[in-house]
Amino acid sequence: MQRDIERNQNRPTGQTATGTRQPDTTMRRDTGPTGLFPADQANDLGSQWAQIQAGFVDDPRNAVGRASELVGRAVGALTSQFERERNSLEQQWARGEDVSTEELRVALQRYRVFFQRLLSV
After folding, report:
1. Is the residue at 14 inside a domain?
2. pTM higher than 0.85 for the full model?
3. Is residue 5 part of a domain?
4. What pLDDT digit, counting tens, does each position of 56-67 carry?
5. Cα(59)–Cα(119) distance, integer angstroms
6. Domain, as residue range, for 95
7. What is the DSSP string of 83-100?
């Protein structure tokens, strides 16, 4: 049994004991942004949140008001970002009949990544 475990640990992922590859049935995520915000924007929002939270002790009402404003700006930024992405995706395939199957395949992959990001919220 220990030998079987050691053999399995040294085997490439997805390969069976006979050396054949198992089909990958998981949905692959295409390369692309995984967070909802670019890193610098996320850091900036995090810093603003930390300041708001630190100010709660001295002025709770003001801190809650600032938190509401920050969340509103973040949601607005996300809405604008997702609308721009959706419009960009639509422009890639909605040119009429001059679109190749390959271009449509790529468009569908990009829609999948975009949709997965929406579902991760």
Report:
1. no
2. no
3. no
4. 999 999 999 999
5. 36
6. 36-119
7. HHHHHHHHHHH-S-S---
